[in-house]
Each structure stands twice: as structure tokens, then as C-alpha cells.
Amino acid sequence: MSIILQGALSSLLLPFKNTLNTTTFTIFCPPDKAFFTPKYPQPPLTLIQYHIVPSNLDRESLESSLRFESKIDTLLPGHPLVVTTAPHSGRASINDVKVTEWDMYNDGRVIVHGVEDFFDPAFQTLLYPWYDSNNRSNKNGTDKSGVDEAVSSSSGSATSWEKNMTVDNLFIMLAVVSLAGSVLSLVCLYRANRRYSGYSFISTEVY
């Protein structure tokens, strides 16, 4: 993560240099082993943006000050994080990913916390779609536009970003991917059945 940030952090912040209302950033850093999994062998820069918060988020904020299901805006347009810290648990988590180490780096302007894995943007999109900038109503039709727009008044304001892709398009994309996965599974099962159908039963009974 540090290697990626050294080469890309300036370019990630460049588009927002005239719109950011804060000079403090909090970065959530997954462990090295997360970069060696089939899911994220080469994480895109958009995923790195999803781990950067334009605000000061300290341990107290994430463990006790911010309410359960609070929204935290990130540098990825239209995709906030969601606080999933259980009340009185004393163990902070975001998008159901636990914070494992506090203040790995902190110079007053950049704060780095360790987390156990990458955050999945689909977590918020599927479970909290009303937090998206283009979809401000919850599943019951109640307007949620005023829910935790800022992280806290003492830790700086988190800017709301315009979303590039509508929630409807995301659901269509997920449906297409799910359908493709189902077809692929059926093809694999069909090939496996054909492969083993020619084998006769071999008795292992010892006389």
C-alpha cells in the first residue's frame, strides 16, 4: 500500500485540490497479504480512493463518537464508507472490515490506520443505497439526505461527491455478472459430467 501511495497519492488528490475543504486525510491500509489474493492482485486506483477519507478520523471517532451505520465520504465519487462498529463493542469496523492497528502513521495531516482487508464498495451499494448521492431515499421511502453528511464538526467536513454511475446501472451490472457466473458454473458442471460419465465403477472390495 505504501508503494502505491508514494507513486499515486498526488495524482489521486489532484482532481480535488480546488474543492477539498480539509487538509487532513485518513487512509485505511490493508495488510500486504491482501494484495496477493485472486480478488485484488492489482487493485485499481478507484479502490485506493475508496480507502482515503478527506477528514480526520481518530480512534475515538470510530469506536465511540460515530453512530452505528454512520456514513463517511471518501475520495471515490459517490461511494461512502459505512461505520459497522457494534454499540459498546470497543472494536471498530468499517464496511464489516475490522480496524486492526491505530495510527500506523500520523503527522497531523495524514493519518494511517491498518485494516484487515480491502473495503468492498458493493457493501455500501447493496446494503445502504440511500447513501449514494443520486439516491437519497431508503428502502422505506424515507429521505436520508441529512444522515451524517459530515463526519463530525470537530474533525472537519467531508465533501459530498457527485456520483458517476447510477445505482440502477450498478444493479444491472451486478445482475449481468451474476448471470455470467451462473452460465459458467453450468458449463463447468456439464464438462465434469461428460468427463466422468465414461468411467465404470471399480470395486475396491478385497476378497
Structural features:
single chain; 207 residues; alpha+beta; 5 helices; 7 strands
Helices and strands in order, then pairings?
Elements (H helix, E strand, L loop, with lengths): L1 H12 L11 E5 L15 H5 L2 E2 L5 H7 L5 E2 L8 E2 L10 E2 L2 E10 L3 E6 L5 H7 L39 H31 L10
Parallel strand pairs: 1-7
Antiparallel strand pairs: 1-2, 3-4, 5-6, 6-7
InterPro entries: FAS1_dom_sf, FAS1_domain, Fasciclin-like_AGP
Keywords: Membrane, Transmembrane, Transmembrane helix
Family: Belongs to the fasciclin-like AGP family.
**Tertiary shape:** globular
Measured as a percent range, the helix fraction is: 25-40%
Number of strands: 7
Figure out the total of helices. Answer: 5
Mean pLDDT: 74
Gap between N and C termini, in Å? Answer: 62 Å
Q: How are the strands ordered across the major sheet?
A: 2-1-7-6-5
State the assembly state of the protein chains: single chain
Order of helices and strands: HEHEHEEEEEHH
Which percent band covers the strand fraction?
5-15%
Structural class: alpha+beta
Rg, alpha carbons? 22 Å
Which parts are unreliable, with pLDDT below 50 for 5 consecutive residues or more?
136-170, 199-204
Please outline the major beta sheet: 5 strands, mixed
Structural summary, described in words:
The chain is built from 5 helices and 7 strands, in the order αβαβαβββββαα. Strand 6 and strand 7 form a beta hairpin. The strands form 2 sheets. The chain has a 5-stranded mixed beta sheet with strand order 2-1-7-6-5, covered by helices on one side. The protein is 30% helix and 14% strand.
